[in-house]
């Protein structure tokens, strides 16, 4: 599979290996290696470090019978691109926003001109992904309306962030014709803000987002509020979103709470994968989820109790079997 060619870099593997939960894997004859890829996002977002941690958990604890599961996290274009990778059977699993997952499966919204991706299945809902609008303080941007006429990073092509940016702008009566839209990953956008090549950027990720943390150490930034009235309107029109608050102090120089909206990061996979494989992958995650918290603060939001929240397409039978055993499904 493509994952054999797109494995995560040795540097990243060394980082995750250094703090991974340890379990010796005996080398036995007759053991079958199964490679299990996890498509994440850019290195500056939350998907990549969380995916790396989960890959370590799967590699160490998802073995079963005579199967040695070898998981790797890889960078990608995030939600939309990840769903397409699964649709083409080019990756075993991936992270994506729950709204994008639903649109891909049903062939609606941004997937309306494409064949529905019917081989998508959910392993678990992971954590809330918050829409963050970051602007340079010197740009004078204080509201969403102030983005008019500004150079704004709207996310990578094929990303959930780009979907969110367009949705938020349209809610305020703003189209891409009203801004100078720049298609950039989180890392590219924060680098461009650092160099003052753009004025603002949309970032949909679990906070604190590493690229924004790094930016705030070198630049005076502002997080733009979506007003409570607009939040309510958005939630009523788009049920995948929920109200959210980015607490004061999340980033350097952020002295007040910021109102915005959130969706859910989901871990999805190819429906064709073996039930026993996904059962053991799911079991490994929930029995060792505390390791994710050691790697990223968002790990604290990854809980078994919320594992099937926001699931609007079928679960993989292996995951469903595990959740039935745990009493989440009756």
**What structural class do helix, strand and pairing data support?**
alpha/beta
The CATH superfamily label of the largest domain reads Periplasmic binding protein-like II
Number of domains: 2
Shape: globular
- Which range does the strand content fall in? 15-25%
Rg from alpha-carbon coordinates: 20 Å
The CATH class of the largest domain turns out to be: Alpha Beta
Q: Layout of SSEs?
A:
Layout: H1 10-18, E1 32-39, H2 47-61, E2 67-74, H3 79-87, E3 93-97, H4 98-106, E4 120-136, E5 151-155, H5 160-171, E6 180-183, H6 186-194, E7 200-205, H7 210-216, E8 221-223, H8 228-237, E9 242-246, E10 258-270, H9 275-287, H10 290-295, H11 317-325
Parallel strand pairs: 1-2, 1-3, 5-6, 5-7
Antiparallel strand pairs: 3-10, 4-7, 4-8, 4-10, 9-10
Helix pairs in contact: 2-9, 9-11
């Amino acid at each position: 599979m493509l994952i054999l060619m797109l494995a995560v870099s040795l540097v990243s593997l060394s980082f995750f290996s250094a703090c991974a939960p340890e379990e010796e894997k005996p080398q036995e004859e007759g053991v079958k290696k199964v490679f299990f890829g996890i498509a994440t996002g850019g290195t500056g977002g939350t998907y990549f470090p969380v995916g790396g941690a989960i890959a370590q958990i799967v590699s160490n604890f998802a073995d079963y019978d005579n199967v040695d599961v070898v998981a790797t996290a890889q960078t990608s274009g995030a939600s939309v691109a990840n769903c397409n990778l699964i649709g083409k059977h080019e990756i075993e699993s991936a992270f994506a926003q729950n709204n994008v997952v639903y649109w891909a499966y049903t062939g609606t919204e941004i997937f309306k001109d494409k064949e529905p991706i019917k081989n998508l299945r959910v392993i678990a809902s992971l954590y809330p992904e918050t829409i963050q609008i970051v602007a340079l303080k010197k740009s004078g941007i204080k509201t969403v309306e102030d983005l008019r006429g500004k150079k704004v990073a709207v996310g990578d092509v094929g990303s959930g962030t780009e979907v969110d940016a367009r949705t938020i702008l349209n809610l305020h009566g703003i189209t891409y014709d009203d801004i100078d839209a720049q298609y950039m990953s989180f890392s590219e956008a924060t680098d461009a803000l650092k160099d003052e090549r753009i004025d603002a950027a949309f970032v949909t990720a679990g906070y604190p987002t590493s690229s924004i943390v790094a930016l705030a150490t070198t630049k005076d930034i502002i997080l733009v509020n979506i007003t409570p009235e607009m939040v309510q309107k958005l939630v009523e029109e788009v049920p995948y979103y929920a109200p959210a608050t980015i607490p004061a102090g999340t980033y350097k120089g952020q002295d007040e709470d910021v109102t915005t909206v959130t969706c859910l990061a989901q871990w999805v996979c190819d429906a064709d994968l073996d039930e026993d494989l996904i059962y053991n992958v799911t079991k490994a995650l929930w029995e060792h989820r505390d390791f994710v918290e050691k790697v990223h603060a968002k790990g604290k939001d990854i809980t078994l109790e919320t594992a099937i929240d926001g699931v609007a397409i079928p679960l993989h039978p292996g995951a469903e079997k595990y959740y039935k055993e745990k009493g989440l499904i009756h």
